Amino acid sequence: MKFAPFKIENFFRQHEFSAPYGISQSDTEPLTLDELLTYASAERREQFEKLWLGYTETQGHPELRASIAAMHEGIDAGDVIEVVPEEGVFLPMNSLLSAGDHVVVMHPSFQSLWEIARATGCELSFWRQRRTEDGWHFDVDELERLIRPDTRMLIINFPHNPTGYLPSRADFERVVELARRHNLILFSDEIYRFTEHDEALRLASACELYERAIVLGGLSKCFGLPGLRVGWLITRDAGLSHELQEMKSYTTICGSAPSEILALIALDNWRALTARSIDIVRTNIGHCREFFGAYPDLFWLSYPKGGTITLAELKAEMPVGEFAEAIVAEAGVTVLPAEIMLFEGNYFRLGLGRTTLPQALAHVEPFINERFALTPRPPLPQGLRVDTAD
């Protein structure tokens, strides 16, 4: 099995830690260890400080799995497998798919969601997003037409990376029902779940609705803890769970003991941490409405209902790849072209989760004013508040 180069990871490997600014990160502002430990109870603090640094349980710390299950309806700790987040993609695609299987996957999406299946020898059909007057949309009728008698797996991701698209509850239930009707494995990437900007819009987890669903979650995006490398898979299907755990023996085997206890501290306080993330995103949406709204002839974007990212269009003759190369070289700002995610059009990913976004935009502004011969905006009056309503 040979994998194609992982374009998005190669891009960030080149720029993420060398450029001083970025506007395309997909996570929320990471916490420091000190900040996370302020959330710890005395019992958790002692558990962390006196931790035995031996091997951990292969399926994951029992308390951690119970905490993850408690965030879902009708899920038990036994339904949960602790993984490294990217491992949570690798395990199902390797253990449950075979050459010749047909797989339907959303497009655009994180490359590993479809590349591992392609490398395995699967035939892929892409459920493609469409741009509408209101933003982005995935048509469930189109999805239904893509499913074939030999379809083995349907791969979905809501809130969507990279648009933040969130379907209606009725549309999501139709997607789940299609999987049930065709007896598909439904792999649901829910890594951005819990950052819906209005909690009333939160969808049920696929694992709550369908016994052959496999849900991917983790602490990297919504919780501001990507450095812990803690994620999870959830399925109520005992056979699928067995296959996943068998494959895990060939990857990480077990989790990091310190990360597990730090993850427990996070999940003890998961509502506070996700509220923090949502507050950062809402604030940044306000900044972006003000910033990009001043350049309507140069940029188009829609704002997400969930998650930490969206797509923005560069409405210029300059290809967005050239724009990205120039702005990182001249202004020190990393911008991810959507073409890196194999999405056509002059788009780039805009990250809304970092507290440093306003400072990064301040370095974008003189670059675009000079490069596109624009008149600089007058400065806002001191103390002007920006409306952050979505």
Write the layout of secondary structure elements.
Blueprint: H1 7-15, E1 21-22, H2 33-37, H3 42-49, H4 62-70, E2 80-83, H5 87-96, E3 102-107, H6 112-120, E4 123-128, E5 130-132, E6 135-137, H7 140-146, E7 151-157, H8 169-181, E8 185-189, H9 206-209, E9 213-218, E10 231-234, H10 238-248, H11 257-268, H12 270-293, E11 299-301, E12 309-314, H13 320-331, E13 333-334, E14 336-337, E15 347-351, H14 357-371
Parallel strand pairs: 1-13, 3-4, 3-7, 7-8, 8-9
Antiparallel strand pairs: 2-10, 5-6, 9-10, 11-12, 12-15, 14-15
Helix pairs in contact: 4-11, 5-6, 5-10
Instruction: Provide the CATH superfamily of the largest domain.
Output: Type I PLP-dependent aspartate aminotransferase-like (Major domain)
Q: Do you know the CATH architecture of the largest domain?
A: 3-Layer(aba) Sandwich
Q: Count helical runs.
A: 14
Secondary structure class reads alpha/beta
Element-level helix/strand string: HEHHHEHEHEEEHEHEHEEHHHEEHEEEH
User: How far from one another are the termini?
Assistant: 45 Å
**Shape from CA axes?**
globular
Largest sheet features: 7 strands, mixed
**Strand order in the sheet with the most strands:** 2-10-9-8-7-3-4
The total of beta strands comes to: 15
What's the mean pLDDT score?
Answer: 94
Evaluate the radius of gyration: 21 Å
In quaternary terms, these chains amount to single chain
